[in-house]
Structures are given as C-alpha cells and as structure tokens.
Design brief:
Elements: E1 6-8, H1 18-30, E2 35-41, H2 44-49, E3 51-52, E4 55-60, E5 65-71, H3 73-78, H4 88-102, H5 113-124, H6 132-138, H7 143-154, H8 158-176, H9 181-186, H10 193-204, H11 208-226
Antiparallel strand pairs: 1-2, 2-5, 3-4, 4-5
Helix pairs in contact: 1-4, 4-7, 5-7, 6-7, 8-10, 8-11
Length: 227
Amino acid sequence: MSSEPQKINSLDEVTSLPALNSYIAALEYLAPGAIVCSRRDFSLDAVRSTLDRTSVLVPVRRERICILVRVDETLALESGLPPAFWRKPVVFRMLEAMHENLCGRSPIQRWPDAVKSAWTLITQHPCQSMSLGEVAGVLKLSPGYLGERLEKILGSTFRSLLRDERVAVAAHQLLTTNLRISEISDQLGGQSLSQFNRNFFAAMGMSPRTYRNRYSARRRSLERRLE
C-alpha cells in the first residue's frame, strides 16, 4: 500500500469494522460535512503516537490498514446551527471514547445493541418524554448499567446527549418559526420553561430569547443577500 494517505470520499461503511462505521456516522451527524477520513498504512506504532483532540488513527487489523478520522474545525465552524460548532464538547468527547474503545489491545467490534438503541432514540425522537430509567426499562437493563455503557462508548452522559438534541430542535424552531418560547418548550419532552431555559443556556451560552434576536436577524440578512 502507498504510504500516502488516501482520502475517503464516501463515509458510508468505511471499513469492515462496524464500531468504526458507527462512530463515523455519529460524528458526521454531530458535525455535518466536517468529518474527514483517510486510509493509511497499517502501523500500531503510528496509532500509539497519533492522538490529539481533533483526530484519531484507528487500526483495522482485518484489512491491515489504518483509518484516520479527523474533525476539520474550519468546516465545523461553517456547518450546522449557530453559534459556530456549538457541539464541540460532545464531538471531542466522542473522539476520545473512540480512541479508548478502538485503539487499545482489545478493541470493540461493534457498538452494544443497547447503546445503538439509545442513540437512535435520542437522536430521532428527542421531543419524546424519556428518562434514562425509562429507556433502560424498555431495554431490560438497569439505569446504572445503561448509563455507564453510554458514557463509555459515546463519551457523554444520557442527559447531556438528550439535552443537546432538544436544544438543536429548539434552536431550529427559534430561527424558522414565530412560536413563542413557551410553546417551543412545551414540545420538548415535558420540560418546564425554567428547565428549558437552563438547558438551552448550558448548551448555547445564551438564553433562547437572546439566541432568536441575535441569529434571526443574521439569517434574514443572509437570505436577502441571496435573493
């Protein structure tokens, strides 16, 4: 194999390692268009020496290659909802978890079914009322065990993942609808308005009202320039 990195243009099913494919798909969901993958020569020494907060070099032993997964922060700043790259903490925690779970002596081959189910529920149905205990009950697991598995595999807690998904839904509605903030809050899993405001501020660094005022004006200005 050539020693030159070979960029992977399609991120669908990058390798025969299901866990790596799951991580790449999840990262692309969190930072659309900002995940860059490339193939490299197989080298465990390179894997051990390559680790920073924006990239992970993963060995795929069956194929005798390594896959470099990198978050391009410049592209990340241009993708998703404002403010720029607000999901950075969860993205970097997921990269750390990916390194721990795929680059050690006993790498996982695939995400546990419970983690895949919880991730799907959180990302596809964030407005549904749910708690860690309720999801664990559906999966016939203890809340403590499910919470530990989620944090180990994904790098973030159930609560923080669900909070960010609900904030993303709310931010989109703040910019694209005229719904009152209380109406948006009512749609997000039974949160009280005060809980919603606290969670939104924790994720975005500003209140929902400030967010709407700041970014709605920018959005309208951009749309007028594009007309």
